Amino acid sequence: MSAQAIARPRVAPNVARLLRRNAWTLGTYGLFVAVMIFTVAIHPNYGPFEVQSLVVGALPLAFAAVAEACVVLGGGIDLSIGAMMAVANVVAARYMNHHDFQTAILVSVLVLVGGTLAGALNGVIALRTRVPDIVVTLAMSFVWGGVALLILPQPGGGAPDGFLALASGNVLTPWIPAGIVLLIVVVGAIWIPVKLSRIGLALYAVGSDRTAAFRRGVRIGPTRVFSYALGGFFAACGGLALLMSTGIGSPLAGTIYTLSAISAIVLGGVSLAGGRGGVMGPIIAALVLTMVPADLILSGTDPNFGQVIQGTLIVLVVMAGGLAPLLRSRRRAIVPGASSG
Amino acid sequence: MSAPATGLRQGRWVAFQGMLRDRPSLVLVGVLLLLVLAIGVIRPGTIGPSWVANTILFAAPLGIVAAGQTLVMLTAGIDLSVAATMTAAAYVAASQSYFGSARAVLLALAVGLVVGLVNGLGVAVFRVQPLIMTLGTGLVISGGLLVYSLNVSHQGPPAVPDIVRYVGAGKLLGIVPVSAFLWAAIATIVIVGLRQTGYGRLIFAVGDNPIACRLAGVRAWLVLLVTYVICGFLSGVAGLVLVGAINAADLSLGDVYLLPSVAAVVIGGTSIYGGNGGYAGSLLGALILTVLSSVFTLLDAPDPLKQILYGAIVVLLAALYVRTTGDDG
Amino acid sequence: MTDDAILLETRGLKKNYGAVVALRSGDISVRAGEIHALMGANGAGKSTLVKVLTGDVTPNAGTIRLEGREVRFNSPANARKAGLASVYQDVSLVPLLTVAQNLRLTGTTMAAIRPWLEELELGDVDLAEYARDLPTPTLHLLDLAQALASLPRLLILDEVTATLPADLSERVFRVARRWRDEGRSVVLISHRMTEVKALCDRATVLRDGSTVGVVDLASSGQEEIVSLMLGPAAASVVVSEGAVADTAPAPKVDPSPAVEVRGLRSGLLQDVSFTLRRGEVLGIVALEAQGQADLFECLSGNRRPDAGEILVQGKTRRFRHPHEAIGAGLVLVPADRALALLRQRSVLENIALPMVNQLKRWGLINTRAERKRVKAATDRLEIDTRAGSRVMRLSGGNQQKVTIARWLATGFVTLLCFDPTRGIDIRTKEQIYRVLRELAASGSAVLLFTSELPEIQLACDRALVMFGGRVVAELTAHDATEAALLRAAHGLERGGTGPAEAAS
Questions:
Q1: Could you please report the per-residue DSSP string of B94-119?
Q2: Enclosing domain of residue B250
Q3: What residue ranges do the domains of chain A occupy?
């Protein structure tokens, strides 16, 4: 052992390193492109309308995935994302119904604030009770689900057309759906400042290694609550997007999004162990997860296979992802100091 | 005069706390008795042999599925496909009863075994995180069941086989539920198995420290594989017991059991990080959750409110457990 | 260096985790401009004291005074602001952030840290690399550089040198001396007595969570520290060097080889051949990362070698899993207890673990027979099982003994010990070596890697010295003096046994 072994020279040029670090996300992009090509191939008339409906259909899941990503990156998990979406969805549908656009925007703002607080509440409970977050948020999914049913026992309500157009309209040309612009603006406006600031760094640090983060001067509790609050905010966005895409409020429609969101983040390269990944991967994964069942139906598969396909896709992708490192290196050394592989 | 007295009282209090820390199941028994007491107060005269019998009858499916969930969680995993598996087993049994009870029951159990095997292969061999793996299989099962339901309906109307109905809802001497015997048998096997068999030891070991297991020559993948298969099988059994008790199968029969199956285990003191806990606690947890539901029913609370209270109380009970057992868990 | 220049003083610091008391009464007084050693056996509370001092954990009782003012830190960041910076035993860089991002988290500027990176010769470390992708010694030094960048009045080094090879340790010592010369203070925790003697001015000794004495290192010897560390009752147990080998029955060397290694290559291991016979303890000596870890990985079945073969009792074996190595009689005791133990399980379950790893043992356990075997093993190693319901409540020495007792109870032919006495108090060490001698005498074979050279003559019959992935020397116990071993371990030619050119 000598100085050379310690101070490793810069062997890998930065490009290679960038590729290595983002291999999974790039893989997701590749998958997206492949699926897109397949879609266009089986659907010769693929046009603005199809793009539009894809975006409108994928928007709630995309927000849900971003919400889950925020929590998981910070080292937690929130199984109540879908239920919080349902609450946001029914509150908005109930109080926007028969009102004008301004009121709708006001209600949206209140819903977003409420969602943030609800997410923060999840985090505070997990933190104060020291009950594992899986358990807390699974139970909270019952609580939020009940709240949604209290607010709107049956599907109903609605929103002004102008509000619905935020997702279903288009910008400049028919090829640019308003939904994608909305997604980019909202996620960009919140996530980019977070990512660039110290709190974002702290979020990743807490997700990666809590003890080390604490010793680096990160305040663990507030950071974790922040990640849950951020998750709650995007879950509320998801609930509003759900209203935009369906036109009505439904107390049960949100629930499936918890599982789909977790699927999307895993597909999008966010490590469930925390600290690794971003929000772009999950968004792209949400698009893929929306497109694949639609494509298969188009190509003549029984539409009822949708869920089967989604489940199989997730499992296969994760298996493939798990297999790669397995083949590359053997197991973790049990004698410290042994070189790997 | 008063100082030593308070000292003594404090001493006793500390000793009491210490006892609770070492035997947290006492707390669970206390909570259970409290809930039973509450029912007695809300509606005097309810508590009696037939109430106990019915409670056990309702708790049996949860208790059985929680047994599988306990084993999986002891290995530091989680099985989110148990609810879908229960539904699938129940529905398959009902839809196949046309061809005879034996075939129906065997096919239903086979569903459980296959799901468990797939989960086990994914987790143990391909090293997929249990949460993701079981989430994926859960989706596949419910989707597959939907397709199956659309394609088998013409073979005869779904009807629960008699034998399943007997096991799920039958009562010996008109009072003792048959499912209680099945549950008791499973509970005995699981509790004794965890404590007294080599495989049981390995479940704890794998959940505690996989590297240490490898070092000691334990083939952790084998242990995990078997554990997920057992969990799938027990989910299938639970599905059968459930459909027997309800006497009707639909495509969302078991869905309500997902949270309770995890909650019963967590309330019962099994660490979600593995290596510590046992089935006795989960069993009490299943009883507590079932009695809690009947309290809500007695109170005639509206469904949404029930749901909210249920979730909140699960968190409270889990928090109570963490508090009594102290720092090192 | 008068008493009025006291920088830091603590009184009765106490910390318990649940029912376990980690620190009973930690008192330490550090003067300005001194290097102060903090010593004690494993589990004496050194690391806990450091964590309490720097706000990493909150004490249950006691006071900390910094220049006479009482202070209370609720995080290491707060302590750093007040001028106390620590480099912890376990690396505390966030693994999935780059080094630069780690620096940004603490608010360390490039300008502040640059000179220290130069000082520690880390100038060419790529700061855009994930902390996870850098070797542990580099991370420790980076941690140190960042601690230095805040220009602390008190620098605390918790076993930093334990993972560092000699040349890097020297860099740390250089900085520590410089710190003292500038009138600042350093607290150093180390198990290496020579290091402490050479560097430190005074030493505070902890035993069982309490401060038992302060020693002036200029005027007193290491015996005083050792007897303080062990306490009055245990002092008589300390044996002089060589006593173990003398009292053990004379080894009857069985000519049959237990393990033969031929041309083994894997990782850092280049080409190693040797024979381990039944009835002997064969020592392995090497500096850090000369391939010894890879050798043990291969022998214990955790990894398949790239080339070469392993013969067990004459037959070639290719292990695919430790399970197979154990079946062939090769068992491993690793240095890091955390890797070998089930923390939440009982002593009995830990010791009995390998007994149930065969499929045919998955059924009901014969509890009485099991308890008997476990008891025999715990008795032989004198394991204190009073807190045995959870292994994590045992002291470090007892935990290590559990990892050995496991194999005594299970049975084996060849025991592979990888630095089994790292960070263990002298009494336990002596016990372990006595057992190794007894095992050899009763016909087992023992392969022992140790990082503490004097122990070779204490416990081994023969020693192999590795350098650059090869065996460069073979010495009998008689010839294996510290000096001879050190020469060989640095690749310095002595008698034509191997290549002397530097392999790195």
A1: HHHGGG-HHHHHHHHHHHHHHHHHHH
A2: 61-325
A3: 25-293
B275 contact residues in C (CB cutoff 8 A): 342-345
- Contacts of residue A110, Cβ cutoff 8 Å, sequence gap at least 6: none
Separation CA A245–CA A178 (nearest Å):
12
CB contact residues (below 8 A), chain A span 111-130, against chain B: 125, 129-130
Q: Are strands C185-189 and C35-39 parallel, antiparallel or unpaired?
A: parallel
Query: Shortest CA distance to C291 belongs to which of A337, A331, A340?
Result: A337
pTM (predicted TM-score): 0.84
Range C3-233 has CATH code 3.40.50.1220: no
Interface test with A, best of C105, C124, C416 (most A CBs within 10 A): C105
Check A131 against B211: CB less than 8 A apart: no
Chain A residue numbers touching B144 (CB-CB < 8 A)? 308
Angle at B289 between CA B286 and CA B295, to 5 degrees: 140
The region that residue A141 occupies, defined by phi over 0 for left and psi between -120 and 50 for alpha, beta otherwise, is alpha
Residue B312: give its domain's CATH number.
1.10.3470
> In 3-state terms, what secondary structure has residue C321?
coil
Which residues lie closer than 8 Å to A264 by C-beta, 6 or more apart?
A61, A62, A64, A65, A68, A282, A285, A286, A289
Give A116→chain C minimum CA distance, Å. Answer: 25
Sequence-distant (6+) residues with CB within 8 A of C465 are C284, C285, C286, C471, C472, C473, C474, C475, C485, C488, C489
| Half-sphere exposure of residue C172: CA atoms within 13 angstroms, side-chain side | 33
Q: What is the DSSP string of B226-291?
A: HHHHHHHHHHHHHHHHHHHHH----TTTTGGGHHHHHHHHHHTT--TTSSS--HHHHHHHHHHHHH
* Sign, Cα dihedral of B135, B141, B144, B146: negative
pLDDT tens across the length of chain B (329 residues) = 444 555 556 666 666 766 666 677 788 898 899 999 988 888 888 888 888 998 999 999 999 999 999 999 999 999 999 999 999 999 999 888 878 888 999 999 999 999 999 999 999 988 888 988 898 899 899 889 988 888 876 566 667 888 888 888 888 887 889 999 999 999 999 999 999 999 999 999 999 999 999 999 999 999 999 999 999 999 999 999 999 998 888 888 888 898 899 999 988 888 888 888 899 999 999 999 999 998 888 888 888 998 899 899 989 988 888 877 754 43
Q: Does residue B118 lie in a domain region?
A: yes
Is residue B155 within 8 A of residue B140, CB to CB? The reply is no
Of the residues A2, A4, A6, the best mutation for testing chain C's interface (the one with the most C CB atoms within 10 Å of its CB) is A6
Residue B226 inside a domain? The answer is: yes
Q: Is residue B185 part of a domain?
A: yes
Q: How many domains does chain B have?
A: 1
Backbone torsions φ then ψ of B139, nearest 5 degrees: -60, -45
- The SS3 of residue B170 is coil
Spell B193-210 as b/e; 16+ CB within 10 A means b.
bbeebbbbbbbbbbbbbb
Nearest Cα neighbor of C252 from C383, C112, C80, C445 is: C445
**Domain range C253-329+413-492, CATH architecture:** 3-Layer(aba) Sandwich (3.40)
Residue contact A146–B211, C-beta within 8 A: no
- Integer Cα distance of C178 and C172 in angstroms: 10
C-beta of residue C425 within 8 angstroms of C-beta of residue C229: yes
- Subunits with 3+ Cβ pairs within 8 Å of A are B, C
| Min Cα separation C337/chain B (Å) | 9
Domain boundaries, chain C: 3-233, 253-329+413-492, 342-411
Residues in chain B, how many? 329
ipTM: 0.83
Contact C459, C281 (CB under 8 A): yes
- Tell me the CATH architecture of domain A25-293: Orthogonal Bundle (1.10)
What DSSP state is assigned to residue C178? H
